[in-house]
Amino acid sequence: MIGPDNTPLRFLSCGRIILEGDEKASARSEGREVALICIKGAGEVRVDSSAYAMTLYDALYIPPGKQYDVAAKGRVDLVECSAPSEKAVETQFVPFEKARHDPALHLTVGDKSSTREVYKLIDDNVEAARLVCGLTFGKPGHWTSWSPHEHGTTREEVYLYIDMPKPNFGLQMIYSDLQNVDFVAPVFEDDAVVITEGYHPNVGIPGCGINFVWMMAGLRPDVDREWADMHFQPEFVGKG
């Protein structure tokens, strides 16, 4: 589990629920809102009297104060992220197939060397308090999170890299000053990087795009959830 207890994160926590065969797991969202995103396999999540069939890239938003029970259908791998919330709203299922065909949630962005597909799974379509979550799939050899941007005054974030089977990898950077880079390292499938401040561009190797789940928590509930609220590195705007 990644969260405030072991990282600089203040609000966001994230982990994985991986089940096989007839395995089951249960948890309760006491004082927190939860988002589940299926990154492999298929399973079922029960909340109250409703059952949600989770398949690849589907998302489920669970408000605080709910028990949720997860069962595998063969094997399931769910990303689980959460943040403090007192907001009384409904559970909401976000099928990937529906998001894929919604121009407000599926964006093709970037230029000749930074093209990627972005899917906003938990965004304005969900009445969350802090969480904003989605997927990015970069083109082989292309940069993403480009032009370099930062949002450290409004949102903290975790990237979890997916669909990059070894030996494929990407390169992740985090910095406020390019002359004194805070973090630069190869990242592989299942790695996660915490971003609390600084620009954070990344790039995939030739033959493999860099792909990741991005999970953000607004520092102020109901205020800092605007996905496009970011500051771009001025010298690289329009270059990519």
Q: What integer value in Å does the Rg equal? A: 17 Å
How many helical stretches? 1
Would you list the SSEs in sequence order as H and E? Answer: EEEEEEEHEEEEEEEEEEEE
Q: What is the residue-averaged pLDDT?
A: 97
Report the principal-axis shape: globular
Structural class: mainly beta
Task: Describe the main β-sheet briefly.
Answer: 7 strands, antiparallel
Q: Percentage of helical residues?
A: under 10%
Describe the protein in words.
- With 240 residues, the protein is mainly β.
- Helix content is 2%, strand content 49%.
- The chain has one helix at residues 96-100; strands at residues 13-21, 24-28, 32-47, 50-54, 59-62, 67-84, 92-94, 106-109, 116-122, 131-138, 143-144, 149-150, 155-161, 170-174, 183-187, 192-195, 202-204, 211-218, 231-232.
- The strands form four sheets. Strands 1, 2, 3, 4, 5, 6 and 7 form a seven-stranded antiparallel beta sheet that branches. It has a six-stranded antiparallel beta sheet with strand order 8-9-10-18-13-16. A four-stranded antiparallel beta sheet has the order 11-17-14-15, with no helix packed on it.
- Strand 8 and strand 9 form a beta hairpin.
- It is globular.
- The model has no long low-confidence stretch (mean pLDDT 97).
